[in-house]
Amino acid sequence: MVKTPENTEEKIIRAARKVFIQKGMDGARMQGIADEAGINKSLLHYYFRSKDKLFSRVFSEAFNDIIEMSDSVFAVAEDIDSLLDEFVKRYIGLLREKPFITNFIIHEINRNPGCLVGQMQNSKLDPSRLMKILADEKNNARIRPVDPYHFIVNMVSLCVFPFLAKPIIQGFLLDGTNISFDEFIEQRPEQIISFVKNALFIKNTD
Fold it and tell me: How many angstroms separate the Cα of 149 from the Cα of each of 19, 89, 90, 127?
């Protein structure tokens, strides 16, 4: 299969992502991004007039990955079992593939939370499907009563926190053991799913 040559804009996005991860938004410089992309600064400014615009583009692409993944899970899940399994496994899989996403989101929450909220409101993500599943499962006496908003926050937190706390988990909790951080994350989906189901289900459905 012939590999399609990377165009200039794609090269800039890839370089910017790397520099933003290394330096942060405040520490990154347009010249450094241009150098990483192997282009001159004038060409960089031709595509993106400011660092803020470039960061917004890089962030939007990363954030949209989460939105699209979540939407696809909510759209097809038929019960709480399939929703939990798919959401947790796919969310952690996405964060393993693109670990920079978590830091980008935290940075944007601190820098411009209104923009992040606006992006979510304008996205196609519809949590009403999740609300219906939880209501149906409660009415069928399969799960305990649960606040859907807390449920969402708990699921996301259990998935995201290990990536945010990687230095602590890797350097303190896993120091001197036979388990690596990658192995820890490999085990994480089943641990989360089991933990949530044990807390949620009235009867063990395993």
Answer: 35, 20, 20, 10
Beta strand residue intervals within 43-121, DSSP E: none
Q: What is the pTM of this model?
A: 0.81
Domains and CATH numbers, the chain: 1-49 (1.10.10.60), 61-200 (1.10.357.10)
If residue 102 lies in a helix (H) or strand (E), which one and from where to where? helix 100-111
CA separation for the pair 146, 148 (Å, rounded): 6
Amino acid 58: pLDDT: 86
* Rounded alpha-carbon distances, angstroms, from residue 162 to 40, 90, 178: 38, 15, 18
Q: What is the pLDDT of residues 10-62, one digit of tens each?
A: 999 999 988 988 887 788 899 999 999 999 999 999 999 999 889 888 888 88
